[in-house]
Amino acid sequence: MTVNYSIINGFKYLSGTTAQRPENPVSGSTYFNTTVGALQIYQNGGWYAFQSTVAPGIPTSVVATNVGTSRAFNNGSASIAFSKATETGGPESSFTITSSPGSYTATGTSSPIVITGLQSSTAYTYSVTATNSSGTSSSSTASSSVTATTVPQAPSISSVTAGNGDASVTFSANATGGSSITGYTIISSPATTTQTASSSPYTFTGLTNGTSYTFTVAATNSNGTSAASSASSSVTPSAAILVDYLLVAGGGYGYNGGGGAGGLRQFNSFAITPGTNYTIVVGGGAPFAGNTQARGGTSSAFGNSATGGGWGIGADSGASGGSGGGGENGVGNLGGYTPPEGNDGYRGASHPVYAGGGGAGGTGQLPNGGIGATSALINAMCSATSSGDLSGGNYYLSGGGGGCVSSGTTPGGLGGGGGGSSTSALSGIANTGGGGGGTYFGPTPGGGGSGIVIIRTSDATTTATTSGAANGNAPYITGGYKYYKFNGTGNITF
Questions:
Q1: What is the pTM of this model?
Q2: Which of 132, 147, 164, 361 is deepest in the core (most CB within 10 A)?
């Protein structure tokens, strides 16, 4: 093999074409490259122009790879690999990576170089420059676009509701960090118990009643787990609270027969969830609508428990409801519920006798309104709240309206029913569910009385917050019970 040399400035250098350069040079080897017409030196893994005043060549083959694992939210990272120039320019002392957008930079002495501080879910391209003591190269061709991913942003807790030995934690995800959220970690304090959830809300179990807890939530994706959310407000789980409650719907009006009383329902030892807001609806009595068709009052409700409004009676036909209205000409009006929610209206014997409306505790007695219902619970509740009609030591609710004959006045039923008359009629008493009294052909019949909802707890120390028409929002205590009376729609939370 022929070895060629060139004399440059009095110095002898190995020379030849690019293809003839030594195959295994060592750092510092020199060579006059006749292909490019330049004296070159081998260093940093490549051949460079020997002149010290030459800036580096432009790097090539830039490839970016996302580094997502364990990256904090909005502190993304990418690894940038590249090739340095091998035929032109002086040897490099360093390389600089620049992102677009954002112009984030990172510097290193060899490939690859890791760049940090990137925004989550943002697509970036990257270019590379080379630097030595003589200057900096132009930027390389940019890499393909790569999206930076990180762990998610910390979730947000919107509410926590205590239950019996548990708590419902409601939260929402924030930014995903560019990778889908796969689950959530919820931690209680105290006890530092950890549970996992796939969605919100989540019921955190195993808590001790009477202990105050706060919670934090973290989100996880393929890159790792986010920082914890801010701590929730504190809640204290407790055993379910048992309440008794009474629902009385609004009474109806009749036209000739008396109006039916509002339906009445009684619930004992009903378990409610502490911290849950329950809506109370008090049914309105039916006002006279200016025609000959009877109308019913509206339902009352506590949460999902409800009872229907009572109905009266049309000119010649019955209408079903919470408690029956008065009947005419042998056509009786059947209550829509079974006792004690409602009973049949009395079946009138013959025209022009119009029977009284049915009460929650009895059928209309020709022509009087049916008696309302009574019970130990009703007596206790009505005695404590001073509502209802007192007779013989008992309280009654949901009395039927009195019917009408050609002359005179017939009474309404005990429990708030309005009396009937040949010329006018009394309305059912408000907050008793009493039916309206009937009239004789033409004059305005009486409207139904509005209903009522009464709630009591067997533990007088139980506390609750109320809103709406709840007896001035002030509970009252008697006989070891605490009572809440709603004369109109409202809310209660124990």
A1: 0.54
A2: 361
